[in-house]
Structures
1.
Amino acid sequence: MLGPQDCGCDCAQYEMAMTLRGYNYWLTTTEFPKTDATRPLPERVDVAVIGAGFTGLSAARTLARRGAKVAVLESETIGWGASSRNGGMVLTGMKLGVNQLISMYGHELTRRMYSASLQTIDCVEQIVREEAIDCDFSRCGHLEVACKQKHFDDYARQAEVIAREFNHQLRVVQKDDLSAEIGSSIYFGGMVDEISAGLNPAGYVAGLGRAATKAGAEIFEHARVEALQRELRQGDSGWKIVTSRGTLWAREVFVGTSGYTSKATPALQKKIIPIGSFIITTEVLPEALAHELSPRNRMIYDSKNYLYYYRLTPDRRMLFGGRAAFFPENDQTIRRSAEILRRGMIDVYPQLRDAKVEYVWGGTLDFAFDIMPHAGQIDGMYYAVGYAGHGVAMATYQGQKMAESIAGDKPENPFVGIPFPGAPLGLYNGKPWFLLFAGAWYKFLDWVS
Ligand SMILES: Cc1cc2nc3c(=O)[nH]c(=O)nc-3n(C[C@H](O)[C@H](O)[C@H](O)COP(=O)(O)OP(=O)(O)OC[C@H]3O[C@@H](n4cnc5c(N)ncnc54)[C@H](O)[C@@H]3O)c2cc1C
């Protein structure tokens, strides 16, 4: 299993500010379930799930509880992808604001989507409770902070629409009252949703892995799916799946590979843009300072496209993330991000000027071209992807809903069947050559809007 390891940085360069102890702070807090590396793959299963993150494991748990024979195929280890690397913010809403959603989908469908986004939080809480997952789940609420006056003015409009159309209350916080929410004076106001929650994502995904196994699913680590082919077996239609650990046959396939979607599922790969996101974590802070930075312990993010998101960890470190490099994680992007994020953190919180940064890591997000979650079937395979940085709750929910669909139910899922656009003119084969331009474009938008 992944453990704390060297980040690849020339740490001497940051000696004054950074005492990097390792990679991904969350992994230092979590014990992952062990799987048997020598166990052969079963010959035949009802459902093969590709990817052992929130999406895949949530689906595997639900399917196995319904009596299906399930194999989860993971190219690395349980939770290796974004699911163990994220900020642990369990957020209501979607990446796009409600006014934009209404203009894209109309009132009725947006109402169903928003309602589903509220249910996603209950879905995570219910699983954590039922499975007694040790992951510090807490309904601490989230705070969105406005980087410009016009962003703040938009909060009032959004809160009004959400209350009127979806019967859900958000609280707009004027700049003068913001110190009760955050120990930073750079923002123009904020908006609070008390329904959102926080958790330790590595603890959660490890617990989901245990829960899926307890329900009867088998998880195969280091089993990279290399090819899938339609194949009839004993009169049943299904899939021959070639993996790095051997071959198996499955009646159905569910793909939950998110930002790590590969050429094994080319049609899906062409619809997903992998985007890097990075996080630093400070040393443990004194209690009074931690309280000053975030008096209500919220999950916080700002109103920019190129946004910062941050929170306290349960042991009182400041965890500060952002799309510092835009490109997916590697030694170079992680190293560059550490310094960019430290500067960003000090802009928000000058009080942290002398705080040591002890961890830095990165992970890959999955964006669809319309920045929406999507689920359904493609080339005959089931899938759920496109969480755009809102995946802790939505991935868990989509895994569960899609498992119910595979089991033959017709669950309410407003994200199934919405148009799933590819790149304009089809100019994308899964290699995001345009990321540099996209990054510059979003920086430009943040400047002008
Ligand atoms: C740095 C960072 C911060 C984030 N912060 C937040 C946050 O605070 N709140 C929030 O809601 N969301 C956040 N997100 C997004 C969230 O983490 C993801 O949306 C979510 O984890 C997606 O889960 P998943 O199971 O779909 O994918 P993943 O967890 O990425 O899992 C996909 C798995 O598929 C495996 N895989 C890929 N191809 C194959 C193959 N061919 N064969 C076998 N296995 C394969 C990969 O190895 C990987 O383990 C963040 C993401 C990042 C990277």
2.
Amino acid sequence: MSAEAVQVVVVGAGPTGLTAATLLAQYGVECVVLDRWDSIYPQPRAVHLDDEIYRVLARLGLGDEFAAISWPCHGLRLVDRDLRVLAEFRRGTDRGRHGYPEANMFDQPELERILRANLARHATVTLRGNAEVTGLTQEGAGRVRVSFTDRVTGEHHSIRAEYVLGCDGANSLARASIGATLRDLKFEQRWLVVDIDTHADLAEWEGVHQVCDPVRAATYMRVGRARYRWEFRLGPGETANDYRERACLHPLIEPWTKGIPVEELEIVRVAQYTFRAQLADRWRDRRVFLLGDAAHLTPPFIGQGMGAGIRDATNLAWKLAGVLTGSLPERVLDTYEIERRPHAHALIRLAKLVGTAMTEGGELGNLIRAAVAPRLHLLPGLKDQILSSRTPVLCRSDLVMRPRLRRSLAGSLCPNAVLDDGRRFDELVAGRFAVVTSAEPSAAQRTEVEQRGGVLVVAHPGTELHRWLRRRRAHAAIVRPDGTVLRAGRDLSHLSAALPSFRVNRGNARPPMPARHS
Ligand SMILES: Cc1cc2nc3c(=O)[nH]c(=O)nc-3n(C[C@H](O)[C@H](O)[C@H](O)COP(=O)(O)OP(=O)(O)OC[C@H]3O[C@@H](n4cnc5c(N)ncnc54)[C@H](O)[C@@H]3O)c2cc1C
């Protein structure tokens, strides 16, 4: 039996845990990541992430590496059961306001591989595989005892941590340990998920194809140079076993693969998933937090499940680093659930809505879709809404100071704009607070921001940041290390009084690398 002490234990080395650990490491926080498996989970799952999540990956130092394994998506096509196009929403593949393409396709195991390799570059983090966490006990002395079993030797160990991040997925032990339960948001559908590798040319449009058919709802998309994903809703009594044989599977995908010989289609896997919508009723008990699938589950219709976990990690890591270094008061940790829970819930609701609109309603639903879908582009602004990667603003909290009755930038994300010197906003700010101002600051204001560990960004007329402030009638905004606006207003002196002192060690941080997308 061994016992060591560490600042943070992260339970689970999926995308959420790896992101949280890397962000903490960038602030020099000591961290142990425990996972029951020795290497990544090899089955493909997530295939889409948006530009906000890409931006987080770039902050981790993975901009170029993600560019090399991802594929910008060209939009969404709604098709009927005969694959006739009902509506098409094309998006450009240029960089959006976060500095990256707005929709990106990839293979989750490949992403996890680069996340793991990147984490290994940080000296303050240890990733321990074959470590099955068996218990979390909150001890009186402000510590949590994390018990785990080495799956190879069978030995039992424990680590004492100041904080524990439960990033242990849908069947989370951390969730059970804090007495949280999953609230059922009333959605359950069984789907067949098929991944195929082929070097043959499917010659299909390179966006997501959504088959709007209640009898056999389906989704098709290209997710990489040689990788294609299909998802088919299973009928009552059907299981994945009915489609494991090539001969049984082929008729399902043949409308897309057409004349390509079956031998040229390598089945990566055929699996069955039950898509659910669930939200934990509490995300924290004292020193234990829930993040990612441990806290929320969504049907994947808008490709936001993993993204939500990465948003959780991004929201919490800098707050925790601030508390651990004594730079921020412990109560800032309360803002994690206040901000993240309604946001995750809103995206789950949207995913349910999209899934229902595309797949439910029987033959009548099909008739309505056939009549309505071709006219959707006539509704002003709808195309932008369907394609937009914007997600809701964060709720008011001690770290999102928004007036109740007036629209404000607070809670929204600051664009990752190109600055006067050619760098992007995130490169300059590098995990600190920023004060963005269109008014020239005085020497005293500059000193004050610097003394609080922040960085001042002057938005000159004609620049993207200047336009961004002006659209909301603001002259200045305080931007948190996660890119969210804390407060915005017209008076820089008044505003900078709300700038927290955030003096944490960024010595261990690597600057974000710009991706090579043109
Ligand atoms: C078919 C499908 C398609 C999807 N498509 C998308 C998409 O396009 N976009 C998107 O954003 N999301 C998508 N998702 C969702 C996405 O895959 C998940 O949300 C994501 O994997 C959650 O990451 P996580 O790190 O929170 O949890 P997980 O990936 O589940 O990782 C949890 C980790 O914790 C470890 N663990 C668990 N218990 C213990 C324990 N007791 N001790 C030690 N270790 C433990 C596990 O081994 C695992 O490594 C999809 C999911 C599916 C199934």
